[in-house]
Amino acid sequence: MTAGAGVLSGCENVRHKNTMANVVVVGGGFGGATAAKTLRSLAADLNITLIEPKADYITCPGSNWLFAGLTSLPQLTVDYLALKQRHGIRLVTDSVKSIDRDRRRLRLTSGQDLAYDRLILSPGIAFQWDAISGYTAAMANVFPHAWQAGTQTTLLVRQLQAMPAGGVVLIVAPPDPYRCPPGPYERASMMAYWLKQHNPRAKIIILDPKRGFSKQALFEAGWRQHFRYGTADSLIEWHSLADNPITQLDAQTHTVISDFGDRFRGDVLNIIPAQTAATLASEASLTDKSGWCPVNPQTSQSLFDPYIHVIGDAAHFAPIPKSAFAANSEAKACAIAVYSLLNEQTASTANWLNICYSLITPEHGISVAGIYELDGEHAVAAVREAGGVSQVGSPELPILEADYARSAYQSLVNNSFR
Amino acid sequence: MQLKQRLTALWLMWSLPVFAEINPQLVALNCVSCHQDHAAPERGIPLLVGLSAQTIQQDLLDFKYDRKSATLMPRIAKGFSDDELRVIAEYIAQH
Ligand SMILES: Cc1cc2nc3c(=O)[nH]c(=O)nc-3n(C[C@H](O)[C@H](O)[C@H](O)COP(=O)(O)OP(=O)(O)OC[C@H]3O[C@@H](n4cnc5c(N)ncnc54)[C@H](O)[C@@H]3O)c2cc1C
């Protein structure tokens, strides 16, 4: 594939050839919503259908801020009216039960059947319930993961607030790769901010199967500054259990148990299990043994089916982290690729952007950025000169970044859904 | 398409087969993920609407070469050549 070919392909005779094609987008999260909206901006007369079971979408971004009392579920909720009315996307409130790849048809839970010329999947994640024995889907209603925002998050907020004085919160962090690498540590920060005011002798213990984590130096510096991190009465402790991860839950005694039998008891347990691509993707045989969907990054076409594009958390775009910002960026490159394929053009070379902000306190924001392109082997690679984490310097910078974190959240939601 | 453009395109295709030409449209789409918050004009990320290509280009070059203090943009601007920044700035100003 040569980059130059794309320049030639604007010829009018092919441009309108396939614009009445049916593109179906499955999953109305950051990836799916952005893909539908971007595709519409490229092709005014394309048939674009979005299938999503929920009438309202509650964003995971911003949901950690609930623990510090900085936002509310209604403020984190978006609907699909703008996509429908402003952008002319056909909305089907239903879920996809199965994909008939040979006939290019979808079977919906309601029994309806739907044909597609190109399918864009952004179905998000599923949890590996067998990774910690005793931690089942039902058990998540007792010990919430809160890794899909909504009732799970409010349950965990209530448990935090009801915790006895001097109690212990255990956060069992997931192994890589997972949705939102800085998420568990932002959550610990936001919980600590609340506990510092309402339950100052309490403790948050993070049990981590990893040797390190995203923005670690910035988080730890913030924790030292605000939460006595590193001292005996720190509000937050981080323990790497890389060679001895948590493998078992004893629900009766509120205890998690490691591979070698170490036991940790907590008053509140937030267990974030290992993750894979959503069930729909694995049932359609679009995942490999990693549990995620391998794609050709240039077009986001599945390596198993050229008519199916996979984006967002479900897809393997490493080293791009699994974030809402990245899902939005992948969706835009995908929309351009789908448009080009429908018009039998060569798509321009893809590139991606990712920025993840985290709040340590309402006045202390940090960020990590990455710009990604294709390397010589057509694999995704970070542009080495760019990206990286917030610089440490003037005390105004974290205050500014906290404001930008809130602004970037609002902007990303507008950009994806409105 | 004009003959001259066509020839340029052919020249590009033959002479630079692995040259990853930047698509300013795609980059600009990613820029507005952040530059689209109308709610908090004072404390938020600045909007880019109404800025001239020249202003945007100058800002981006200043970010890239650390001539302008900032929290984030230098880490983004360093990902592009000066020429790419110009093309991106022109695209944003026109759309
Ligand atoms: C606590 C937390 C904090 C986070 N903070 C940030 C942050 O600050 N910034 C950031 O960039 N990212 C953040 N993230 C990550 C972000 O939430 C995800 O990366 C993002 O939601 C991925 O988008 P997606 O489209 O891939 O999946 P999702 O947003 O999960 O959307 C998938 C959609 O598909 C639908 N679906 C699934 N199966 C089917 C089916 N069979 N049929 C029809 N529809 C289906 C689901 O209902 C869902 O709405 C955070 C995540 C968490 C958990």
Structure notes:
The complex is a heterodimer of chains A (418) and B (95). Chain A is an alpha/beta fold and 418 residues long. Chain A folds into 2 domains: 8-126 and 276-348, FAD/NAD(P)-binding domain (3-Layer(bba) Sandwich), CATH 3.50.50; 141-273, FAD/NAD(P)-binding domain (3-Layer(bba) Sandwich), CATH 3.50.50. Helices cover 27% and strands 27% of the residues of chain A. An 8-stranded mixed β-sheet of chain A has the order 5-2-1-9-21-20-19-22, covered by helices on one side. In chain A, 50% of the residues are buried. Chain A has helices at 5-8, 12-15, 30-42, 81-85, 151-161, 183-198, 216-227, 279-283, 324-342, 396-417, and strands spanning 22-26, 47-51, 56-58, 77-79, 90-92, 96-100, 105-108, 113-115, 118-121, 125-127, 168-172, 203-208, 236-240, 246-250, 255-258, 263-265, 268-271, 275-277, 293-296, 301-302, 305-310, 315-316, 351-361, 364-374, 380-382, 388-389. With 95 residues, chain B is mostly helical. Chain B has a single domain (3-94), classed as Cytochrome c-like domain (Cytochrome Bc1 Complex, Chain D, domain 2, Orthogonal Bundle). Chain B has 5 helices and no strands. Chain B is globular, with a radius of gyration of 16 Å. Chains A and B meet through helix 1, helix 9, strand 23, strand 24 and helix 10 of A and helix 1, helix 2 and helix 4 of B. Bound molecules: flavin-adenine dinucleotide (FAD). Flavin-adenine dinucleotide is lined by residues 26-32, 51-54, 57, 60-61, 63-64, 95-96, 122-124, 147, 179-180, 183, 278, 280, 312-314, 322-325, 327, 356 of chain A.
